[in-house]
Every structure is written in structure tokens, then in C-alpha cells.
Write the C-alpha cells for this entry.
Amino acid sequence: MPAKRFRCYRCLPPQGREFDADTPECPACKAGPPAVVKLTLVHFLFEHPQGAVVGWLGRRFHLACQPGQPLRNYPHRPMPASGDPLAVSCPACRQTAEHKKALEGCEAFDPLLPQE
Ligand SMILES: [Zn+2]
Ligand SMILES: [Zn+2]
């Protein structure tokens, strides 16, 4: 499975079309940079008593797509992860029941509207 995720802003403006690939070429319109940008994967954190990620005040969390795994550090910064379901871009995290449940709790969420 390709490890990189991109978004093409020539397709479906203003949200753009997301796709997974090895190279930044849109499979739909064949555009490349600067219309195509590489996305940072933001993972979803959900609270769980056995979570491997320990947060403030001893609260524990699971990474939705890798439960039981601690946050891996990238070379220069911590692994991006958020408890805000709207900020999540990891496709595997978006497939999880926990993320879908959290999204349902977001009254403001409308998949047809561009997200801030
Ligand atoms: Zn495109
Ligand atoms: Zn993830």
C-alpha cells in the first residue's frame, strides 16, 4: 500500500480530492505540484483506560489505527495526533468505529461543506 497521501486542489475545489500514491500525481486529472500537496497524517486519539499514550493528568489514549502502540516520534517532531475528529486525516483512523462515533458527536460536521 502506498505510504503517502496527497490532496489535489484542481479536483473538487475548494476541499480537494485526496488520494494515496507513491508520487504526487492526481489519478483523476493527472495534475502535479503545486496543485497537489502532500498531506501530513493526523491520527485520532481516543480515551481508553489501557491506552498506551499517556496524556495530561494521567489520562490514557489509544491511537485509533494502532491501538496499544505509543506515539512514535518522527525525526524532528512528535507524531501528529488529535482528539478532534475533524482534524484527523489518517484514512485508517477514519475507518475506525471510535472515530465515526466521535464524528457523530460533532453537530457542526457536514461532509458537504468545506472544513475550516
Ligand atoms: Zn486532480
Ligand atoms: Zn491513524
The two ends are 29 Å apart (CA to CA). Helices lie at 91-94, 97-104. The mean pLDDT is 86. Residues 8, 10-11, 17, 26, 28-29, 31 surround zinc ion (ligand 1) (CB under 6 Å).
